[in-house]
Structures are given as structure tokens and as C-alpha cells.
Amino acid sequence: MHVNKVDHVTTIDHVAARLGESVDWLYDVANEMDTEDGVIWVYGLDNDGVMAFTDFGIENLVELINIHKELKPRDER
After folding, report:
1. Which residues form the domain of 60?
2. Suppose 57 and one of 23, 53, 66, 69 were both cysteines; which one would form an S-S bond, judging by CB atoms 3.0 to 4.6 Å apart?
């Protein structure tokens, strides 16, 4: 039997605030991630979904952020 060991997730808004990044930009970066990378969608009663990350997902997101910043020309930073 598979046991899920994720006991919490952190919303993209919270992650953006912690990292000092724009939510919209993080959303674009995180769109490259899959569930296996630690990103999920959480839905409430109003069917509005919010992107959220496991701790592993935040680590992966930070790696993607670094890659995107390295690829971005210096004059666009």
C-alpha cells in the first residue's frame, strides 16, 4: 500500500512572498512543473483553484527560478 507522506502544502502566494518574487512570474515558471515535481492544485467550494507546493516542490521551483534568471539577459533583470 502506498502512503502519501505530504502533510502540508504552501500556496503560490505564500511562496512568492517568501521568495520576494511576483506571483504571476512564479506561475509562469511553475507551469513547467508536474505533480511529480511537487506542485498541485487545491480547489475550494467555489471551484477556484490555487497552485500549491510541497516542500520538495518549493526546492524544485527555486532551482527553476535560478535557471530562468541565469538564462535571462542581464539588461532584462
Report:
1. 10-76
2. 53
Q: How far apart are CA 18 and CA 12, in angstroms?
A: 10
CB 32 within 8 A of CB 48: no
The total domain count for the chain is 1
The Cα–Cα gap between 61 and 31 comes to 10
Residue at 19 is within a domain: yes
pTM (two decimals): 0.83
- Interatomic CA distance for residues 14 and 35, integer angstroms: 19
CA distance 42 to 10: 10
Judge whether 2 lies within some domain: no
